[in-house]
Amino acid sequence: MNAMPPRAAPMDQLLHILDLSDAGGAQTGEDIFVGPGEANPVRPRLFGGQVLAQSIIAASRTVEADRLVHSMHGYFLRPGDAAAPITFGVERLRDGRSFSARRAHAYQGGKPILSLIASFQGPDNGVEHQEPMPQGVPDPETLPTAADVLGAIDHPVAQAWAYDRPFDIRHVDPNIYFQAPGEHVAQQAVWMKSMGALPADQSVHRAALAYASDYTLLEPVLRRHGLSWATPGMSVASLDHAMWWHRPLRVDDWLLYVAESPSASGARGLSRGRFYNRDGELVASVAQEGMLRLPAGTPVVD
């Protein structure tokens, strides 16, 4: 098994999209920022995780430096154009003694494509507990990379997933890129980390984790029904995204991403996920509902 070497281009692109320009205030009283799209010849639509990450960075720019995002709830309203810039408007809802609240909208063509509310908190002490990290999970170094699995496949999507993502993603369970082997259960685990070092700024790491959390979160829904990403005619889209950051984290160190789907109905599937560092600390939790539509007659596992 060959280890995937760090690729400078995807990491440079991640840092580029998180480096928003400050466009000042607006007549509506919002703080305005502008960020680039992420042009990709195999994906004309914006990646949802990108818009989440950029919105979190925009909102973070409007709070005191010692207040970090600890929760976010967002709705994807329209598909975005990966080739077009994005405007972010941030409304300062409240600044209290310990917490700050912000509402952020991402716009393209004058229409909102994402709406979210985020809460920020300064350092504080209190009671602590966490759900323990699963035991017996293989180390990431023993698992195949996306390049190991997809690198030899002469297909633009396979090549993009193998080499153009800024995160190294390694499935603990059999991957479902082109088929859904193994037991059809509604849970899975993957290891992930960025393909290179990120600045020490904790806001950047938290935004980058939001970016990465959108890659595989709906896979437990697909896995439960014997579906792969290559299922002909399948349509999948994120509808909303909620995230909670519990403890300081680094996305340039390995994180175990454990996810499960408690329900799917009405052409929608719900997934919940947890991120652990290698010391077993629960650093973040996430939930997402996605749209899942299949052509009539598609075989599925009930």
TrEMBL record:
InterPro entries: Acyl-CoA_hotdog, Acyl_CoA_thio, HotDog_dom_sf, TesB_ACOT8-like_N, TesB_C. Residues 172-291 form the Acyl-CoA thioesterase 2 C-terminal domain. Keywords: Hydrolase, Lipid metabolism. GO terms for molecular function: fatty acyl-CoA hydrolase activity. One of its GO terms (biological process) is acyl-CoA metabolic process. CDD domains: Thioesterase_II_repeat1, Thioesterase_II_repeat2. It holds the Pfam family Acyl_CoA_thio. It catalyses: a fatty acyl-CoA + H2O = a fatty acid + CoA + H(+). Residues 37-121 form the Acyl-CoA thioesterase-like N-terminal HotDog domain. PANTHER family: ACYL-COA THIOESTERASE, ACYL-COENZYME A THIOESTERASE 8. Belongs to the C/M/P thioester hydrolase family. Homotetramer. This is Acyl-CoA thioesterase 2. It comes from Arthrobacter wenxiniae.
